[in-house]
Write a structure and sequence with these properties.
Layout lengths: L7 E2 L4 E2 L41 H47 L5 E2 L5 H5 L5 E2 L2 E2 H21 L8 H28 L7 H18 L7 H22 L28 H12 L3 E4 L4 H10 L1 H6 L2 E3 L13 H5 L4 E2 L1 E4 L2 E4 L4 H8 L3 H10 L1
Parallel strand pairs: 6-7
Antiparallel strand pairs: 1-2, 3-8, 4-5, 6-9, 9-10
Pfam family, one: VKOR
Family: Belongs to the VKOR family.
Subcellular location: Membrane
Length: 376
């Protein structure tokens, strides 16, 4: 019996089976011939229910990288917000000092006798002809602008973020070096004088400097230390060259003694001022001051000779001032921190106050003022 098979063909492969004679007695096996065309190799990959190590490694790494990047962005944003906040406070502080310096005004007198005017009016308050508060304002402004742009990731003029961080670090290092030098000047050349606003500015500068060190990586420490040393040398050398001809100012609260003295009031009092002074005295309002304080004298000049005598004025250093002198007990009990200070109906007003504001705070009406004018 002969077997016949139909050939099967496809574009990729071809089978052909030929007829063979019936098996003989010797039972020889049939021969199968396959054409020269080869079978195509189709790779098939079987997947199991459990993920292979290599299969999910890329998504896992991508997720980890994204999480790390998001954490880094959040940390940088928090840091730059601190930069911006501290820089803004520094701008306010130096803006006030700039106003005092340019207008020749005195700052609010601190307890202890020394005033910021001693420092602001000294030769050390000018660097190469530029008022020091102006330079401080510009430096704080630069820090605020850089930190804001770095936080938004949009630096101007095509500056890269790396260069922006470098400029921010260099600026804060220069500011901290200058502040350290100024503290040395304040403690040696201006011994006895105090400047609360200057100390606040120094504290802010150091805060910005240590904040910038937070972003320094371990492998960058050697480069950073070298940069700090170079910048500190340049800043100190520049300030020393500027102050080479500066002379220390006499201190008003250091080693010298100030005997108590009375000040003469040159202005005359108006009927309104006299009426207001009487009203303030009747309600128990008090003015606390010190005999050397120029603001206290200017406050009395607003009232005039006659009205000033009617004020309930408390002298906080009635026995004069010398090193180690304590403030008068009544002033310390009232918590006085500067001169002049008004306490009216439990409310505290610091510095010179206009007569109209004193009248409003004390409840002195316009009718009372008109009545005082008529009596005059």
């Amino acid at each position: 019996m002969m077997a016949r098979f139909v050939s099967v063909s496809s574009p990729q492969f071809h089978f052909s089976v030929r007829d063979f004679p019936p098996p003989s007695s010797n039972l020889q096996p049939r021969r199968l011939e396959v054409s020269d065309r080869r079978f195509p190799v189709v790779p098939i990959k079987c997947s199991s229910s459990e993920p292979e190590d290599g299969g999910d490694s890329a998504p896992s790494l991508l997720s980890s990288s994204s999480s790390s990047s998001a954490t880094e962005v959040s940390t940088n944003s928090w840091t730059y917000n601190w930069y911006t906040g501290i820089g803004g406070v520094g701008m306010l502080d130096t803006a006030y000092l700039t106003y005092l310096k340019l207008t020749g005004s005195d700052a609010f007198c601190p307890v202890g006798g020394g005033t910021c005017g001693d420092v602001l009016n000294s030769d050390y308050a000018v660097v190469f002809g530029i008022p020091l508060p102006v330079i401080g304002f510009c430096m704080y402004g630069l820090v605020t602008a850089l930190s804001t742009q770095l936080g938004e990731g949009n630096l101007p003029f095509g500056i890269s973020k790396t260069n922006g961080r470098f400029a921010l670090f260099a600026t804060t290092t220069a500011m901290a070096s200058a502040s350290a030098y100024f503290l040395y000047i304040l403690s040696t050349k201006l011994s006895g004088s105090s400047c609360l606003y200057c100390l606040v500015s120094a504290f802010l500068s150091f805060s910005l400097f240590f904040l910038s060190l937070k972003d320094v990586k371990l492998q960058e420490i050697q480069q950073v230390v070298g940069l700090q040393i170079c910048l500190a040398i340049i800043v100190v050398a520049s300030l020393t060259a500027s102050y080479s001809t500066a002379q220390p100012i006499p201190s008003r609260s250091g080693d010298i003694e100030l005997p108590y003295f009375s000040t003469e009031i040159t202005t005359s009092s108006s009927p309104y001022a006299i009426g207001l002074a009487k009203h303030l005295n009747s309600i128990g309002a008090k003015m606390y001051g010190a005999f050397w304080c120029s603001h206290c004298l200017e406050q009395k000049e607003m009232f005039g000779r006659e009205a000033a005598k009617l004020l309930n004025y408390v002298e906080c250093f009635p026995e004069g001032y010398k090193k180690g002198t304590k403030i008068f007990r009544a002033c310390s009990d009232a918590g006085i921190e500067g001169f002049p200070t008004w306490i009216i109906n439990g409310q505290v007003l610091s510095g010179e106050v206009e007569l109209a504001e004193l009248a409003e705070m004390s409840g002195f009406s316009l009718d009372q003022g008109n009545e005082a004018n008529q009596l005059q």
